[in-house]
């Protein structure tokens, strides 16, 4: 591989949502394949900083390492806001995986999520592939379309070397769509997967997930 022997990098920006952050990290640790790099970045998040200082995640980090994975959890000094754009940019620069995916800390992924996304792009000529996601908040499967507001980060897997050539994310709403536009403008080869969804959206702006902070 061209990027230091990891099959995949997953990026998780964090601000607040302590129980959901714990859940998202546990979902990563429970993946049924190895050879991945997970970059958990706090956007000046005091809650994540408390976790780090307490050593809360130390055991899970070590267990992931024993299996040949990297689970990196850091908190940046300053909150930049803007939908975690600065964390996304930092994680793209730090990515050592052949492919790159995105994960919101208030959602969930099934244990076969990494395997599912990789199955459609490894050993192919595609620069990115996009997938259906399961939206528990609205009780539906979302079938993304290449249109503003109808596809997002969570539905993408991208070849890291290609992603690193794209313009940086900004704090503008819709930066996930602008990334896709930039990739298409740069002659990306892509397809849609019809695999069963393994990414689970747990809340949307007007339908938050209850019973968890």
Walk me through the topology.
Elements: E1 6-14, H1 18-29, E2 36-42, H2 46-54, H3 58-66, E3 70-75, H4 85-94, E4 97-102, E5 108-109, H5 113-119, E6 128-130, E7 133-135, E8 140-142, E9 156-159, H6 160-163, H7 175-185, E10 190-192, E11 199-201
Parallel strand pairs: 1-2, 1-4, 2-3, 6-10, 7-11
Antiparallel strand pairs: 4-9, 5-11, 6-9, 7-8
Structural account:
With 213 residues, the chain is α/β, with parallel strands linked by helices. The protein has one domain (6-201): Alpha-Beta Complex (Spore Coat Polysaccharide Biosynthesis Protein SpsA, Chain A). It contains 7 helices and 11 strands. It has helices at residues 18-29, 46-54, 58-66, 85-94, 113-119, 160-163, 175-185; strands spanning 6-14, 36-42, 70-75, 97-102, 108-109, 128-130, 133-135, 140-142, 156-159, 190-192, 199-201. The strands form 2 sheets. Strands 3-2-1-4-9-6-10 form a 7-stranded mixed β-sheet, sandwiched between helices. A 4-stranded mixed β-sheet has the order 5-11-7-8. β1, α1 and β2 form a beta-alpha-beta unit. The longest helix is centred in the N-terminal third of the chain and has 12 residues, at 18-29. It is globular. The termini are far apart. The model has no long low-confidence stretch (mean pLDDT 94).
